[in-house]
């Protein structure tokens, strides 16, 4: 006697198998994006770094508003003035944030200017007010600032440079170039690394042979002399915008080889998987297989590489400008601001001129911590 089989046509209910707690049920039903976000939130240092980086890049968009002065504003009466101290109480009375004006004198023995606070003359600080006029992104005339100070009675919260420029304003403006050059440079580096490494790892054979020789040639070239050579061939009459994009291309052309080799080795192992064979049999193009099936398989590694490459690009631009080989004045970047730090006397007598190195260090650390969190979160089941 043949026993009949019964097939239940009702939808499968996972709760009928086992009883889940609310937390387990939320994880079980969560999407990949939710799992990544939940794991990233547990990395407190990465979250703090992401907030810091977001604020820094937001500041670059509105540098004119956040900076008290423009990059061209200077006061030759306050050359190499030390940073002002912010005070709230004057003679025991609370009057809000203010600074004391400086009395200027000349030390003839050491041939340096001396600035001493004048406790009888205060300069109040105003916020969200009208101050020094500027052109927003060089297009819209405005004079709104987060903090205002009179150009005739300037306030230098981070001191002034050798020409009387406000260091705080120039650091804020310098972030616009130093931070964006990393994004543009890493886009070029990733495009070359993924395309060349992806083709070498997917096809192998002579394609891999040619790609490997290209990588070895680029990696065998010493980085600093290569930068010197590429920068030296740039015409001196190029505009600062042209030089900016040239430097980003140079940084991108130098830093793609490591990623290309990582992509190549990963694709060598993934191209033999069954889902790749299935996609190939269904007629998927090479571009679709690599872009939609292979690269997402090691996205966590790409994320980690990106967050390491961006600060490398920033340090590269800073180093070139510091050596006088990158951007040049009147452009403003953190590397250009650090040119004065090459003189040991400047570092010893006016240490505030090396303050631009602080945001460089903070940005590099923030990108590394942010990358660690993203790398872990991109593999939520790990």
Structure description:
With 382 residues, the protein is an alpha+beta fold. It has a domain at 170-377: MetI-like fold. The chain is 53% helix and 14% strand. It has 15 helices and five strands. The protein has helices spanning 22-29, 32-41, 44-61, 63-66, 167-203, 205-220, 223-232, 240-254, 257-270, 274-281, 286-294, 299-322, 334-337, 344-349, 357-377, and strands spanning 87-90, 93-107, 112-124, 126-136, 140-148. The protein is globular, with a radius of gyration of 28 Å. The two termini are 51 Å apart. The model has no long low-confidence stretch (mean pLDDT 81).
Roughly how much helix do the residues carry, as a percent range?
A: 40-55%
> How much strand content do the residues show?
5-15%
- CATH architecture verdict of the domain at 170-377: Orthogonal Bundle
Q: How many helix segments? A: 15
Give unreliable regions as ranges.
none
First-last Cα distance: 51 Å
Strand order of the largest sheet: 1-2-3
Q: What is the average per-residue confidence, as pLDDT, rounded to a whole number?
A: 81
- The rough form would be described as globular
| Gyration radius over CA | 28 Å
* Total beta-strand segments: 5
- Main β-sheet: number of strands, strand sense, barrel status? 3 strands, antiparallel
Element-by-element helix/strand order: HHHHEEEEEHHHHHHHHHHH
Q: Which structural category do the helix and sheet elements fall into?
A: alpha+beta
CATH level-3 fold name of the domain at 170-377: MetI-like fold
CATH superfamily assignment of the domain at 170-377? MetI-like
Question: Mind telling me the CATH class of the domain at 170-377?
Answer: Mainly Alpha
